[in-house]
Specification:
7-stranded antiparallel sheet, 36% helix, 21% strand, alpha+beta
Length: 222
Amino acid sequence: MPGASQSPKILQFKVWLVGISPMIWRRVQVPASMTLRELHGVIQVAMGWEGIHLFQFTLWARRFGSRELSARSPDIPLSELRLRSGTRFRYEYDLNGPWEHEVRLESRHEADAQRTHPICLDGDGSCPPEDCGGVSGFLAQCEAWTAPETRDDFAALANFVDQLALKRSTGTSIDAEEVDGVREALERLEVRQSWQGKPFSRKDVNERLRNTEYLDLMHQQW
């Protein structure tokens, strides 16, 4: 492994999903004393995954990850990896998918007494749903949001609102069949909305990190 100078106590990483545009990414700061397994838990929380699949890091042509993958133990402190600023490595989750993440060490910092770590500083993009078929499946589901069937359901809702206002003004009753049609359109739209993934909220991520949920997710596998 290449050498590096004495590392400050805090490491800042940018993590993004490979093969998806617009980019789905997060920026986190973690203690250098944190292990790769703990970083796995932090990435799970930051990205929005559920920790239900195997994982592995590929670094310096070595694999660290789930025991079932015959990889090296991820219980190694980041400080021992002697990472240089700008170093990139691969993090994979759900290898049947798979979801490939690029991880880059952006910078090093001294610990800030006013800030708890780990912490998510920024990010963008909704986390894909678990078990949606990887990148290709997720992109196909995203395209469904702009499909003609979706536009037809929105048009049906708009038409119902117009008819509702008209019937109320004239005292005409609402047809039960029309109500059923609207309810079905709403159900279809709700399903398509769930395909778009879990929206990113830095506030929610940091609350989960403060509650140390990453310590649970770093061991959770089905």
